[in-house]
Design a protein that fits this description.
Lipoxygenase-1; 40% strand; 387 residues; seven-stranded mixed beta sheet; 25 strands; 4 helices; single chain
């Protein structure tokens, strides 16, 4: 039975298990989700754990709903299907079945679901099928497709067919306020880690090194005189670099020292975007990794070093951020440090398939060879300089 009109209702009857499927073939990343309010006032949602705080649910314990996973990663075309199984609805006052267009939501766009060939199917354990097409012409990143109502004897599925922007969705649907396309995670202590699961397979993973350029709020001397341990107008060259290892065994370093800036479209698929010798760039220094090639990368260790001057790390408020579209921003602050060694390994990225584990290191060394020895890279080092 196809529920063609908003408000149209289908009697599901009693069931042991329902299967709810989101089906599409267009080159777009759609995500099947459920949001609820229980009879005792609790709210929540079941959606991909590729989102910060997301959960696939549990079929054998509350909420008695379980999601199959995230099938649209990368927004490639072809037959796509996400499934959600529902064991019972007794606890719910409201349960909404929704689809989020991650492709549009992550870029701030609001196109129409009618541009895609998506539909939702609800199949009972008796083999009865009910369909709601996502063909509304209204623009928006989220579609509220259907609503389940549990009665005394049977359950009904109601066609809701309402599309809205992400912020309106968060405000209107119970439990949806916790949904975040991206958020922030801070790795506070050495050894803290966080797993990134990119929902896109194109574009870039961006690594940024920034620092407080004027910790006293004064223009004279500034940060770099503090880094140098003096009060004059001398500058400091604080650099971002990395050690890399890719799956074919290639190892190396990328850094301004030695003019080794890497490459984005060829191995090692890591590019340094420029050397800030003065600290005058408000955005600090940046490197980017090709997301289309992360399956070919094994590990990357990001570091910073003082190219000239006596280090005073406590004055920098240095912080590395790791950004992937649609994922939490990972912050790795150096914190207040009194170490006098000029080289600091800040964060290690371990790559495994489509998952990236970010671990806070903040270990200090007398130079590149000492860091290399600790982390087992096995490179040969020679003295270098900048042009």
């Amino acid at each position: 039975m196809e529920l063609k009109q908003k408000g149209q209702k289908a009697d599901i009857g009693a069931f042991k298990q329902l299967k709810v499927s989101l089906v599409w073939t267009s080159a777009v990343d759609l995500d099947l989700m459920a949001f609820y309010r229980t009879k005792d006032g609790r709210t929540g949602g079941i959606y991909s754990d590729n989102y910060a705080g997301g959960t696939l649910g549990d079929l054998n314990a509350f909420p008695f709903i379980e999601l199959s996973g995230d099938e649209g990663v990368g927004a490639g075309g072809g037959a796509k299907r996400e499934e959600m199984r529902v064991a019972k609805l007794d606890d719910f006052a409201e349960l909404y079945i929704c689809a989020l267009n991650f492709t549009d939501a992550s870029s701030g766009q609001n196109r129409t679901f009618a541009d895609y060939d998506a539909r939702v199917e609800v199949i009972t354990d008796k083999g009865e099928s009910h369909t709601v097409a996502l063909d509304t012409p209204d623009p928006g990143a989220v579609a509220m497709i259907g609503k389940f109502e549990a009665g005394f004897i049977s359950t009904s599925l109601i066609n809701e067919s309402e599309v809205m922007g992400l912020e309106d969705f968060r405000a209107k649907i119970p439990g949806a306020s916790e949904l975040k396309i991206a958020s922030k995670v801070t790795l506070k202590s050495k050894g803290d880690s966080f797993d990134i699961k990119p929902k896109v397979t194109t574009g870039e993973l961006l690594i940024n090194l920034n620092w407080n350029q004027n910790p006293d709020g004064k223009s004279s001397g500034g940060l770099f005189s503090k880094l140098l341990g003096g009060g004059g107008g001398g500058g400091i060259d604080l650099d971002l670099g990395c050690l890399f290892e890719i799956e074919n065994g290639l190892k190396g370093a990328i850094q301004p020292l030695g003019n080794s800036f890497g490459a984005f479209d060829t191995p090692p698929y890591i590019l340094h975007m420029g050397d800030d010798r003065t600290g005058s760039w408000s955005q600090g220094e940046n490197m980017k990794i090709n997301l289309a090639r992360i399956g070919e990368i094994r590990r990357v260790l990001f570091y910073t070093y003082i190219y000239e001057g006596v280090p005073n790390w406590g004055a920098t408020d240095g912080i590395v951020t790791v950004k992937v579209p649609g994922q939490p921003v990972i912050e790795v602050p150096m914190g207040a440090q009194s170490d006098t060694r000029p080289f600091c390994a800040i964060a290690l990225l371990d790559f495994s398939g489509n998952q990236i584990k970010v671990t806070k290191e903040v270990t200090f060394h007398n130079g590149h060879p000492e860091c290399d020895q600790m982390y087992g890279w096995g490179l040969r080092w020679v003295a270098g300089s900048k042009d």
